[in-house]
Amino acid sequence: MNRLLLKILVSLTMGASVVGLYSCGPGGGQVADGGIGGTGITQGRVTSFGSIFVNGIEFNTDTASFTVNSLDGTQNDLAIGMVVRISGSSDATNATGSAESVTYDSLIEGLVYSNDIATDHSLRVMDQTVSVDGDTVFENSIDDTSLENLPVNSELEVSGFTDGSGSILATRIEVISLAWSGGELEVSGVISSISGNQFQIGGLTVDASNIQSIPAAGTFVEVEGNSFSGNLFIADSLEIEGDGDRVVAEDGDEVKIEGQITQSLDANDLFSLNGQVVDASATSLSGASGQLTTGRVAEVEGVMDGEILLAERIKLKAVASERGEISGVLGVGDVDVDGGTLTLLGQTIKVDNSTIMEGDEGDNNSFTLNQLSPGDYLEASVFIDNGMLVASKLELDQAPSNHDAEVEGIPTLVNASTIEIFGITIDTSGVSGYSFSEQLIEVRGNFSNGVLVATRIEEDD
Predict the structure, then answer these.
(1) What is the per-residue pLDDT across 180-209, written as a single tens digit (0 to 9) for each?
(2) Do 235 and 365 share a domain, yes or no?
(3) Reported pTM
(4) For residues 135-168, b (16+ Cβ closer than 10 Å) or e, as one string?
(5) Domain CATH for 451
């Protein structure tokens, strides 16, 4: 029987007890309130260091063990954007916790087959579709080749969200080599289309002649090898990941996970996050089929009941049309450490424990607000929450040579020679040929006296 169908049938038999266990918390369409604490499992991307920040919780790691790609490691082996699994205790009220163990496994260490970042915000890596968004961390310590200019046959390490069916939302992409010349490659995903000694993971056909036996279709595995025969990837080893399914924890465990919705909410109030089936019936997003849709990023807190995660709280991340970027130079007094805000291009931006803080030096380099100085150039991925700009990601970078400010977003006010994006007034008199309809645009220019004077405007796909 199909595993998802089995879970649906199980959830139907317990429907009445589920609703009785949890009361709906207050909240709007984007957050179904509740929340957990105590000992459990937290899974999500690393947003900052000091200790380690995941899903808005600062975990102390002084006594934690670390496993990195199946080997003993340390916190120094981790990097911003990596998706980790933490076993430990947490206090949701104070947003603190103590980690007992931290585990990281990359989804792919493999080759670029094609690069469509410029047109479709995606790559084909080991025949898996790897998509990126404004929060994806890109690391290239080799040279200045950008993500959209990575050549075919580049070797990458990819971390992110997936259900194993061949699509990944990358939270981090790191360049290992710009031209693979041999060496071990690996890809993780769900086995499908078994035929003789071959099977598929996403679009990749794997030759398993060297493997003693192929697990059943639907099993989540990691396959390693270092050679190809035509389009066939020759597997030298195969390891079943966990129990071979996407169930994140044991029955009764408290769980907080971040991920991408991989199956939309159905009539039974079930949806899937990274392949983990979630019951939303006890939240204010019960029945919200128009919001719990495939592709959206969410955080879910709850308790495992068998193989189903009974959600107590669901937090939806902003969709692409609600997001944008603001980049500029910090001035004197633009950082309010106590208030948890900073000011860029005249706009106040909230920064919290969930903000990705990406430094400009080293894999695991991050920073805090009190380490920022006037003159620093910051790139902020932002969205609007209850009328306030919030940073989902901050990146320290070198200022461009020919302009000092950039804004990306959809104009909300259009006049003859000015537009407004995220409250920033933009003087467009120096550019022409744009109708500024409801489309995402990128503006470059120089910020002075409260106005961004545009020198270049581009439509963003």
Answers:
(1) 999 999 999 999 999 999 999 999 999 999
(2) no
(3) 0.89
(4) bbbbbbeeeeeebeebeeebbbbbbbbbbbebbb
(5) 2.40.50.320
